[in-house]
Predict the 3D structure of the following.
Amino acid sequence: MTTSAAQQTPTGSKALTRAGGIAAAAIAVSLIWTLAVPVLGIDLTVTSIGAAAPQTVDLVTILIATVAVSLVGWGLLALLERRGKGRVWTFIAAGVMVLSLASPLLAAGPVDARVTLALLHIVVGAVVIPAFRRGA
């Protein structure tokens, strides 16, 4: 027996849309990292606020952070939806994305590295937030 997209349960469709958003964000940051680091030669080595030593941000770190933060956002959205407050999540997620920009923008390091890292934060939010809301 086959099922069409129209016959999917709302929960299954919602989960698929959100998982797709996470996958799309991971692909987007991979493309940006590939363009920035190997192609343009940007060195993503910065010293975070309060850190003693510089840290190089590699693709694996970016992908882990993208998936982890997205899953936390998904969990918060699911919790808020159960309480009938799902719409509040969009404002929380946008606020967290804006606040997350402080880390790359205030880090010590080359401007091109900090701008690239900030762009990665923005892209994850720009992909995940609408995808999660679409699934709501």
The longest helix spans residues 10-39.
